[in-house]
Every structure is written in structure tokens, then in C-alpha cells.
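Practice problem: Prepilin-type N-terminal cleavage/methylation domain-containing protein
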Amino acid sequence: MRINLNKKGFTMVELIVVIAIIAVLAVVAGLALTQFVGQARDSRVKSDIGTISRGIDTYLAQADNVSGLTGTNGTGGTVFNTGFLDNNTGLQDIFPTVPVHPDSSESYHISSDLKKYVIGGKLDPDDNGDREWYLEYDNFTLSGEDLTADDWSNVVNGIDW
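Answer key — C-alpha cells:
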């Protein structure tokens, strides 16, 4: 019997090395993808809040709107939803659909003092697992807000309107 020493193929060690390299690359790609998804959600939150802010600016600038925003429970705030739009006649024309937070467990919130307002939404967790609020506001200087608070009313509680 003759043994063929010229067999072609890969050794077990070569295969294990290639599989290990592919595994490392997959882990690195997965981590990068997770980071990009979080950044995309944050960008959407900021974009939605900017859209809401511009829409409310348009609403407040309308000639027949002298009373400002209603239905925000004072400076405690409320969720920006269809109920809020219904309380402010004319906002339905500006917002045919309500922007929805990319995290289905979260909502956009608004607080106002007539023509002064602040809008917020939670961003994705940072490296420490903390979720900060992203805010836009108009007609006053924002101070006293707590961007790390869990609840919207705690975020706006310290604002000097």
C-alpha cells in the first residue's frame, strides 16, 4: 500500500486559526453596529424634537393664536400626542401625524408657560447606562433642568420660567 504524501487541503490548526480570526472580526463588527444603531436613534430623537419645535414656533406665530399652548398641565408637562394636538386647535394642520419616539417605551414630552415651552425626549443610554434627555426650548433661557432625571416632571421641575 502506498501513502500519498502530496495531499492537498488545510490542516486542523489552519482551520482553527481562520475560525478564530472570523470570530474576532464578527465581535468587533457587532459592537460597531450596536454603537451606530444608538447614534441613529439619538439622531432621530433630535430630528423629531427639532420638527416639533419648528411646528410649535409656527403655531405660536400664527396671528390668531394669542393664548399660547394649552393642555400641558402647566409647567409639569405632558406627553406630546394626539390629545395634546386636540387641545391646541390648529396644531393638527401642522402635525398630520405625531412623531413617535424610536424607543417604543418612551415618548416625547412638552411643558409650557403660555408662549414659552420646552420639549424633550430621552436619548439612548451612554457607556454608563444613563439615559439623558435632549431638550429644545424657546422664548426663555433654560436653567435649572435635570437632564439625568428619570421622570419628565423632575426634568422641568427646577426650570425658572
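Discussion: Helices lie at 12-61, 82-87, 91-94, 152-156. Students who identified this feature from the C-alpha cells alone can consider the problem solved.
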